[in-house]
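User: Some background: our group keeps a shared notebook of sequences we're curious about, and every so often someone picks one and asks for a predicted structure to add to the entry. Today it's my turn. The entry only has the sequence so far, pasted here. Could you supply the structure so I can complete it?
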Amino acid sequence: MMERAQLLNRSAVGHATFRLSPRLVGHNYRKAGHRKGVTCEQESQDMKVHSSKLDVVTIPETQRLERDGGHTASSSGMDYPGAVTVPDFTPFRNGKGPRTWPKKAEIYIVRTDGMSCSRETVRASGCLSFAHPSTQQQLLVWRERPRCVLVLKKLGDEQWESYLRVLRYLGKEEGMRVIVEPHEYLKLSEQTDLDFVDTYNHDEAGRLHQHVDFVVCLGGDGTILHASSLFQRAIPPVVSFSAGSLGFLTNLSLKNVESDLRAVIYGCEDLDQCSLGEEMRGVHITLRMRLECRIVRQRQSDNTPQELYEVLNEVVVDRGANPYLAKIECWERDTLITKVQADGVMLATPTGSTAYSVAAGGSMVHPNVPAILFTPICPHSLSFRPVVLPDYAELELRIPGDARCPAWVCFDGKQRQELQRGDSVRVRMSTNPVPTISKTAQTRDWFASLERCFGWNDRAEQKPLGYINRSDGAF
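Assistant: Of course. Here's the predicted structure to add to the notebook entry:
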């Protein structure tokens, strides 16, 4: 804690003043509008957070982004400029030939509190990582015009026409390379005007974050969870359009999909207190924390690769179909916090606080609050209440050897598997957040979702007292 406090205090002094000079591509990108540029303060030291371990890296003032291996930082993920040729692929539109990926657009992630601004770390591999906990708003600004977009939709053909509408707009009107999932790619082979559509194979799935500039989701919250699962490490910004039954995380409507996508590509937000140079605009984003979860088996050696999952909502350990209560030891590093005797226990992110956690009695937490929610599920104790832990906590849910039965674990409701006695799940904050593009600002969007989806604090308004105008003041 002392180390963290010293580091945060250190960020308040020694700033370097700089002006961003974007490399804009094409006439279309300049229609974002002309703004008078002002300077913005850059923190002279980059802070890296991995749970509670903080390292300070000194960055020269002349260096605008972090350099990786001596190469100019960009989000393309390559050690040399230009496109990347991927062998063993035959697109349907050309009949044969290798796939050539476009160079990924460079971006800034800007924190702003309305008075000052600083940037998140964007590595040369295209990986977003936390500079420090998300206590301020963020603004996404493209340094270059985005060129490549991944479009995901919910299962089924209910949104097929909207899907084609989005593909044609991005490919024909904006001239972008559009990537779709392999099973959708086969269906699109019947369309003759989609020569700009491409897909990926199994070997390329792990490198999508190096080429995709942003992700478009057509569906409900489940589509965003699916996007999170596709990118188990770094994930590009996600813009989502509501086409599901709830849509707590999806504040955009398909009715205005073209104008909303145009705002994402060219920017729609001007902050007078923190402008980023001439002809540059941005969009508000929320960096949604994920949890890094590792399954440790009792009999595996230290050198055995551990099963790793990144979850956006929650990780749940429960009793499954067993007739007995689950017995789970909860550790924070080397300290035993408590022993759970309940149907189960969950560790949720602030984003997941409005999902399973709130249904189990947990609090609703704003997604920018740096925290891990510890929520019991039907505990056999009147005093076992949900708690909120700091984001740097490193937790372990262990099945003790004297437990009556094994337990089960699932990650965002998927990859469900059994935990034998002695097995455990280790959980900590991931350094790879999910950046979701907001409709307006984070807090305004969040409260709008509470009201729209949950009817939060919806009741008949209390009427005022009816005063009678009398000379003695009585009523």
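Suggested note for the entry: Helices lie at 2-10, 26-29, 160-173, 182-188, 221-230, 257-266, 356-359, 442-454. Residues 1-95 have pLDDT under 50 and may be disordered.
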